[in-house]
């Protein structure tokens, strides 16, 4: 059986978390060494008018935890990139290779969306996003995909993501925000996509 980098990474993450933690630390250091200056210079334009765009590290971790607690259980059927407890969120906020952002509703300061590029020093990034249950249907998923593309391609990364064809909203959002190439069809109706930089 041929193993690809995606499968190997998930094996370490799920079955050997202590190894994954060590890999993440080394990756973070090497990524920042290679891309740190570019990360500091990144600017984005595709921010929806009614929202503030902020770095995850600039929002209190307990507010982010509450955002995840507020989502219905079905929201995590297709979205499980990391743990959602306070300690895990604090750790991600400190990780310089985990470029995560929030869309905050200007009218009330609530978190409307969460998105990230998990970056690797070899020049790859894996994007993901979640829209708050009360803000679905407003095009925020597509807007966040465009933002992630701006960030990732602005750094010169190749971008990837996995999306399930059963997760219709996310699937449509991925296709409407970007040109994509199917790298691999996976189990459970999931597609491993490369985002194409136009």
What does this structure look like?
The protein is of the alpha+beta class and 198 residues long. The chain has six helices and seven strands; from the N terminus they run H-H-E-H-H-E-E-E-H-E-H-E-E. Strand 4, helix 5 and strand 5 form a beta-alpha-beta unit. Helix 1 packs across helix 2. The longest helix has 25 residues. The chain is globular.
Question: What does the secondary structure layout of this molecule look like, with pairings?
Answer:
Blueprint: H1 5-15, H2 17-41, E1 51-55, H3 61-70, H4 86-94, E2 98-105, E3 111-120, E4 124-131, H5 140-155, E5 158-164, H6 168-177, E6 179-185, E7 190-196
Distance between the termini: 34 Å
Mean pLDDT: 89
Low-confidence stretches: none
Series of secondary-structure elements, N-terminal to C-terminal: HHEHHEEEHEHEE
Tally of helical runs: 6
Biggest β-sheet strands, sense, barrel = 7 strands, mixed
Strand order of the largest sheet: 1-2-3-4-5-7-6
Q: Which strand-content bin applies to the residues? A: 25-35%
Look at the helices and sheets and give the structural class.
alpha+beta
| Broad shape | globular
Helix percent band: 40-55%
What attributes characterize this protein structure?
41% helix; 26% strand; seven-stranded mixed sheet; 198 residues; alpha+beta; 7 strands
């Amino acid at each position: 059986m041929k193993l690809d980098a995606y499968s190997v990474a998930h094996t370490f993450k799920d079955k050997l978390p202590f190894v994954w933690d060590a890999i993440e630390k080394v990756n973070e250091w090497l990524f920042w060494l290679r891309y740190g200056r570019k990360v500091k210079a990144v600017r984005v334009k595709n921010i929806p008018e009614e929202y503030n765009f902020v770095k995850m590290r600039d929002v209190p971790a307990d507010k982010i935890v509450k955002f995840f607690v507020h989502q219905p259980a079905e929201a995590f059927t297709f979205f499980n990139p990391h743990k959602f407890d306070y300690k895990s969120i604090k750790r991600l906020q400190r990780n310089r290779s985990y470029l995560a952002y929030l869309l905050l509703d200007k009218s009330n300061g609530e978190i409307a969306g969460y998105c990230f590029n998990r970056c690797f020093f070899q020049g790859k990034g894996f994007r993901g996003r979640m829209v708050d249950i009360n803000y679905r249907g407003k095009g925020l998923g597509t807007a966040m995909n465009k933002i992630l593309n701006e960030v990732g391609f602005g750094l010169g990364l190749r971008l990837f993501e996995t999306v399930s064809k059963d997760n219709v909203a996310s699937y449509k959002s991925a296709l409407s925000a970007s040109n994509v190439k199917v790298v691999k069809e996976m189990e459970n109706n999931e597609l491993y996509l490369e985002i194409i930089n136009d």
